[in-house]
């Protein structure tokens, strides 16, 4: 341990002051921001938590995918901490109805942050030193008094926004040197760490070359400095220095900067968070179990179970996938018409579908990239199963039609409904459900966390399992002139005039040849009946 750290004034008065000024009793929201209200208080009033002198220099480069990631970094989270936070936040976001929590800075441009920290002291916020506030516990109990689990979870979500959702039991405080840029500087070490001292640092801070310029925005002010530098290619880097007599010299002399941090404890901030956990882990076992039961119920309500009955709403036509008991004019027996249309009263089961997972699937929920069969809803009086079928190399029925502006549509292949025994189903009746990247669809991916489960109202693509690039789609071709047979053996055909002007063609698009630029292949899954 270096001499400058041993001399740090970790007195009880100093520790209590830092506890208050740094708001160490506040958790973080799912957005990465500091909570609005404290969730814990000192177990013994005016007795601060334990501090250990620390001598720890660390540097790493972090790729910020979103404003959420940036907020967590600004609040002292390393890349390792973000990896621990991601699954905790992902569960909260997946169960939440709040778009405000799910979508953080959707127009955010990816940036790179090079973060150097020097930890001068470690703070322990374990149950030995802190406890949940009476206000926090009271609000949790009040939320759990709501009638339904949906209402309970809605109230809990509001509390997470007030009291936070991510709690750190161990905090490291000291100084930070942070450089951000919208480009990666080649040749920089990442995630380098020196324990027990800063000598021999593996990272050289971003600094101007021989022909570069450096602009000082804010010179040392309350222990902080902000600089703008331009490298040899005139690319801009923004640097913030906190602690250690913050000034541009810290860019060139990291060792001296670290020594100065230990000598200026009045400027210490939170530079690292460890022992990450969800905020409800602060509660006693009984109350925590009640909260977890509500969260799990919310997840079950949001996720789609296998064999659930759903409606499929097309993003392009803004109409629902349906079928008719009229036969297509090809020679295949029992090939029924499919289309998108408003929902009319009439034959039940024409606009509702079952998502049937593979028999080998052990998961109760539909997951992204699962292989599914899309089957007409099985009503009590139905004995025959009808499956959505894609016919590659069979042109779609309305292939010679034109849009209202006179242009011809992209060529596509036929989609129909086939009567099949489950043992006769092939890859032409199987569909891979794929996630659509959409800012309104909840972006937990910004923390490097893939969404696993399909949720009610998610946007998806449905790819025919028999091919890599053929997707279920619908476009603005009306079906009022579409020929059909009333019976499979009919010689003469009729026109689908009834409701035909309000119906739109469903077909397969080969996206390798024809990009769906207007979201013709995007579908919203709407749960109709949970089973």
From TrEMBL:
Domain of life per record: Eukaryota
Protein name, per record: MACPF-like domain-containing protein
Region (Disordered): 390-420
Coiled coil: none
Domain MACPF-like: start-end pairs: 58-291
Compositionally biased region (Basic and acidic residues): 401-420
UniProt-listed Pfam families: MACPF_1
């Amino acid at each position: 341990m270096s001499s400058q750290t041993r001399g740090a004034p970790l007195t009880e008065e100093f520790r209590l002051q830092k506890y208050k000024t740094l708001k160490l009793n506040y958790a973080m929201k799912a957005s990465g921001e500091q909570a609005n209200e404290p969730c814990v208080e000192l177990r013994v009033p005016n007795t601060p938590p334990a501090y250990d002198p620390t001598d720890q220099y660390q540097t790493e480069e972090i790729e910020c995918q979103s404003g959420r990631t940036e907020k967590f970094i600004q609040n002292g989270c390393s890349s390792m901490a973000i990896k621990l936070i991601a699954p905790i936040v992902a569960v909260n976001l997946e169960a939440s109805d709040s778009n405000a929590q799910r979508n953080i800075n959707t127009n955010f441009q990816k940036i790179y942050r090079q973060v150097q920290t020097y930890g001068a002291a470690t703070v322990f916020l374990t149950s030995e030193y802190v406890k949940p506030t009476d206000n926090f516990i009271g609000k949790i109990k009040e939320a759990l008094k709501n009638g339904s689990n949906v209402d309970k979870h809605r109230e809990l979500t509001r509390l997470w926004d007030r009291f936070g959702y991510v709690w750190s039991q161990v905090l490291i405080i000291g100084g930070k040197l942070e450089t951000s840029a919208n480009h990666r500087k080649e040749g920089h070490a990442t995630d380098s760490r020196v324990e027990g001292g800063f000598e021999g640092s593996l990272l050289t801070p971003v600094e101007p070359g021989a022909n570069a310029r450096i602009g000082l925005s804010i010179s040392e002010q309350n222990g902080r400095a902000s600089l703008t530098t331009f490298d040899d290619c005139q690319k801009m880097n923004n640097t913030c220095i906190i602690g250690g007599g913050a000034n541009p010299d810290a860019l060139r002399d990291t060792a001296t900067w670290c020594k100065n941090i230990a000598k200026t404890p009045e400027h210490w901030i939170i530079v690292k968070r460890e022992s990450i956990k969800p905020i409800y882990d602060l509660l006693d076992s009984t109350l925590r179990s009640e909260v977890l039961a509500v969260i799990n119920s919310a997840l079950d309500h949001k996720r789609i179970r296998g064999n659930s009955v759903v409606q499929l709403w097309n993003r392009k036509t803004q109409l629902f996938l349906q079928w008719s008991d009229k036969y297509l004019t090809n020679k295949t027996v029992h090939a029924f018409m499919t289309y998108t249309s408003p929902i009319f009263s009439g034959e039940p089961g024409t606009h509702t579908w079952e998502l049937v997972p593979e028999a080998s699937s052990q998961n109760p929920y539909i997951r992204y990239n699962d292989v599914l069969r899309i089957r007409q809803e099985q009503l009590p009086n139905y004995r025959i199963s009808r499956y959505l079928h894609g016919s590659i190399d069979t042109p779609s029925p309305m292939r010679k039609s034109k849009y209202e502006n006179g242009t011809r549509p992209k060529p596509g292949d036929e989609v129909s409904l086939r009567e099949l025994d489950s043992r006769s189903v092939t890859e032409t009746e199987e569909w891979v459900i794929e996630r659509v990247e959409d800012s309104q669809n909840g972006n937990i991916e910004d923390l490097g966390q893939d969404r696993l489960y399909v949720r009610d109202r998610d946007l998806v693509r449905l790819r025919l399992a028999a091919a890599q690039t053929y997707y279920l789609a619908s476009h603005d071709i009306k079906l009022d002139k579409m020929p059909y047979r009333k019976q499979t053996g009919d010689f003469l055909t009729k026109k689908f005039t009834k409701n035909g002007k309000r119906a739109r063609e469903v077909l397969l698009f080969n996206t390798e040849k024809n990009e769906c630029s207007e979201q013709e292949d995007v579908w919203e899954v709407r749960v109709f009946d949970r089973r």
